[in-house]
Amino acid sequence: MRREDLAMSTPTTAEQENLRSRMPNPLQFVPEMAGIAEGLHKAIRNGSIPQTTIGLLQLRAGQILGSTYFTIRETGNLRKAGESEERITAVATWQDAPYFTDAERVALELVEAVLSPNPFGERVSDELHAKASAHYDDKALWSLIMAIAHIGFFTPAALIAKPIPGRPPGQNYSE
What we know:
Elements: H1 3-9, H2 13-17, H3 33-44, H4 51-65, H5 68-80, H6 85-90, H7 102-115, H8 126-135, H9 138-161
Helix pairs in contact: 3-9, 4-5, 4-7, 4-9, 7-8
C-alpha cells in the first residue's frame, strides 16, 4: 500500500471524535447493570491476582472476540499500568513470546480455552485446570474466572451496541 493510500485510510482526529455507538448508554434503560458490573469489578480487584494479569487476559479476550472496544481499552489500561509495548503487542502471540510468566501464560491459555470453540470435547481440560491450580489458589482461580466472566458479561454490548473505542466507560456511548 502506498503511503498516501495509508494516510487516506487512517481516520482523522475529527473522524475519530465523530464516532458513534450503535446504541445509547444502556444504564438509562437497564440501571441494574451498574450493580452487576460493580460486583464483577470488585471481584477481579480483590488482590488475589495481579491487575496486569487481568489486563493481559482481557486484552487476549478482546482479540479472540474481535472486539476493537475491548482491545483498545485493555491496551490503554496496560500502557497506563506501565506495561511494555513488547508485552502488549505479544499478547496476540503469547504462546511463542518470551515476555510472560508461567502464571500469565496459564491465564492466557485459560481465556483462550473458554472463548474458543472445541468441537472435540470440553474446552477446559483437566490438564489445563491442574496447570491453573498449580499457579493460582482457589481464591485467585475464582478471580480469574470472574475476569473472564466480566468480559463475557460485556461481550454482547461490545459487539452489538459497539461502544466507542478509546473512551472511558460512561462516555463511550452516543447520546
